[in-house]
Amino acid sequence: MDYLYQQISYLKGLAEGMELETLSKEGRVLVQILDTMDEMVKAIDDLYDAHSDLEEYVTFVDEDLADIEDEIFGIEDDYDGFELEDEFFAFEDCDCCDDEELEDEEDSE
Length: 109
Fold this sequence. Notes:
Distance between the termini: 60 Å
Shape: rod-shaped
């Protein structure tokens, strides 16, 4: 953001060095454009600060939610490297289909 502030300051300095007459149409337009650009840089800086604050807040909420999930579900997984355990694929107690079908599928593999 400092770069934008420096650029605006430089442009304002150039405009003052040119001794623009604020009574002329062109001078008023250029001065207004520079003032508008200065306001835009300030607004962008405010948005950047708000975004940083929001990002930090979301990080804290995410960490708190992960703690709550661990308490409720008792699962301590890092979802970045999500791996399924073999117990999720145990079909021995499956009541939804015949055990013979499962054994046939396992033998064919």
